[in-house]
Amino acid sequence: MREYVVRLSSLTVKNIKNVKKGTIFMPLAKERKLKLGGAEILGIYGQNGSGKTAIVDTLFFLQRIMIGKELDQNLIDYIDIDSSDAKVNAEFKIFGPNILFEVGYYINLIKQNGEVKINREYLNCAINKDGIRTNKNIFIDYKYNEMECIFKPQKRLDEVVGKNQETKMDLIVARKIAEKSNCSYIFGESSREILCKEYNNDFKSYGIVIRELFDFALKDLFVIRNTHSGMITANFLLPMAFRVESDRIGMKGDFAIPLMKPAVLDAEKKELLHTIVEQINTVLCTIIPGMRIEDKDYGQQALDSGEDGWKIELMSVREGKRPIPIRMESEGIIKIISILNALIQAFANPSICLVIDELDAGIFEYMLGELLDIFQKSAKGQLIFTAHNLRALEMLNKESIMFSTVNPNNRYIHMKNVKDTNNVRSMYIRSITLGGQDEIIYDETDSLKIARAFRKAGRSLCNE
């Protein structure tokens, strides 16, 4: 277990897709205890097209930015069409030995000449230690248009540079590299190496913050979007989100296995797949009684490079029956297998933040409720999900549910006047029909108009 644990506290989104402004809060966001809390689950509910997936997409792109990757130019399609820029502010808590860092990462993205660029990014931080909490101040502020300035405030720049002019030149070069590569200056590789060094002044704590946020994005943040499920629906690939750390293997990502034919893997990937399958089987047989998966080895086959490879196919094995290819299982079972390793990681590891779009897709309603109830009571990490199935509203605490609204300037709210004894599912349905919340949470549809439209469309088909 690492010395520090990073937790996402909140996420504010402006001008992303159909969200003019909206903020989601994790259940423990307002607590300032030095001691790490337990599991945090946040389900985001609302009608279609009300901004749920915008949160998932924002976290996906934010993760790429925080590991120093070049900006994905697909972002230009996610910035509101009537806006020239988008803003994201992510708040984090970093728990360490008798210390708590309350950190905010702000980024401003602009459209420029048909591209997306980082116009400004900054990190602010408050340090809570020995019963004393500092003010939350910006400690590194990068602005694209301020060419003459490396970053602000000058005091922090002086702490990094000291009397070493070579370090100052390296920071200038790192800025040029970041601008040319169109990536984050704070988290870009060249500048990050300098900022995360061991300093003998106040910047030492800020270097820890940058390093831990980078490690969190690289190793601990899983974002599973709809494209992940799309490959399963197309019966094309089984992408298994995984994280493996052992004496022999240490990595994270998506292990994609073809569904229609065996895969040819080298020795390292073969061993990794076997490790993932073993971890999945530990839980799979309890979720789907009597079922496990196995990585069937058809023997050696040369890779395109000429090196030794092994022909491997994933099989579904049930008690008393012959193994069948995994593609013959239902889409729901394959979906569970694809996310199960990541769920195991989030259950056991307090530093994991797992984000899943449409968690309920293909999963039996009762099973979904049981999984969420187990997570809420016994897990250690964070789980953020969107869904349409309302079973979760009966299983989770009121702080673990946020609802998208009709108002694009206030997209996400907690339902008010909810008591511990209330059935949130019933209250949500009542609020849809009768209102009573601070924002309208459902853009009402007229069943008569829908029926009339169907009849009109039907008549037009008959007349063709």
From TrEMBL:
Gene Ontology MF term list: ATP binding
Domain of life: Bacteria
Keywords for this protein: ATP-binding, Nucleotide-binding
Protein name in the entry: ATP-binding protein
Lineage, uppermost ranks: Bacteria, Bacillati, Bacillota, Clostridia, Lachnospirales
